[in-house]
Amino acid sequence: MSCSAVDGWDLAHADQALTEALAAVAPRGVSVGCRTIQSGDEALLLAEERQSIQTSYLKRLKASGAVRYIARGLLGERGIDEFPVLRAPTGEPIWPEGIVGSLAHDDDVAVAAVVSAVDFQGLGIDVEPAIPLPADIQSLVRIPTDKIGNEHTSGISDRVLFCAKEAVYKAVYPLDRVILNYDNISVNLTKRYATTTTGRRAELVFCTSPRIVVLAFIPEAQPRALKSAK
Fold first, then answer.
1. In the chain, which residues fall in CATH 3.90.470.20?
2. What residues does CoA bind to (predicted)?
């Protein structure tokens, strides 16, 4: 099912299909949501959110409006109504006290995830179309310690790997404030975890249809390793 459909009926069903796929893999306590990006979604931005996003590029504003609309809805389900999800100068979203969360979008779909900071130190999400990753990008993303397998991701394993590394970065950056490159993150898709050169380990869950979405999370009780396991 295409998530870039333009008919209203198809949009609703595409969103429902991805919502169900996310619900099936999300860790307990993590709230997730999705939305197909639509014309006019830039109007979903609250005034404070718009001021924090330093761009006039309409495509980006639409995606930012869609993803923050999802996030505010997820926060509302937790009793935090109409909280403006601002963009920090360093790029990450600013969440209310006691909440850990993450935002992501590709050209067509926006996704968001939130969880209580009591349960998780870090949470990251990323979304990609379920198509092969171009070869030139594969060579930038994959490192010898990555283990991608192919039991559930035949043909799109490298795209899942790319998505996983993006999600891991979002989960760990707010904790360490260290910029990581792809070669600083080692992913094991078969065993569903990743390690970083900063000593973090993130657990992974993902779906591959109708979209690739990866959630990376660090439980609150997890100690930080002295170095990454490879």
1. 8-117
2. 60, 68, 126, 166, 170, 180
Q: Given its phi and psi angles, is residue 28 left (phi above 0), alpha (psi -120 to 50 degrees) or beta? A: beta
Helices (H), the chain: 8-25, 47-52, 58-76, 135-141, 157-176
Residues 206 and 160: beta-carbon distance below 8 Å: yes
Looking at the whole model, is its pTM more than 0.85? yes
166 in a labelled binding site:
yes
- Tens of pLDDT, residue by residue over 19-73, are 999 999 999 999 999 999 999 999 999 999 999 999 999 999 999 999 999 999 9
Q: Is 126 annotated as a binding residue?
A: yes
The two structure tokens encoding residue 135: 């070869």
CATH code of domain 8-117: 3.90.470.20
* Residue ranges in the chain whose pLDDT is less than 50: 1-6, 228-230
180 labelled as ligand-binding? yes
191 is in an annotated binding site: no
